[in-house]
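TL;DR need structure tokens for one chain.
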Amino acid sequence: MILRQKAGVALMILFLPINGPLWRMFMEWVGRPIPVGEIPFLGISVLMFVTGTVMMASPGFGSGSDPVE
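>> reply
TL;DR here they are.
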């Protein structure tokens, strides 16, 4: 796995939509509550999850492999 794919997996795990309440509880525990409503935060979470999925699943560009003749 290349670094981009590892970062994509990390984004997918961190921003699973089910983790939204955990993020909110953690940020309140730290003392910096998230000033975004539930629905917008869910949208952000899904967007970050999809970004991680694209980073993980997309092929590398310029991988250096020889073309097939």
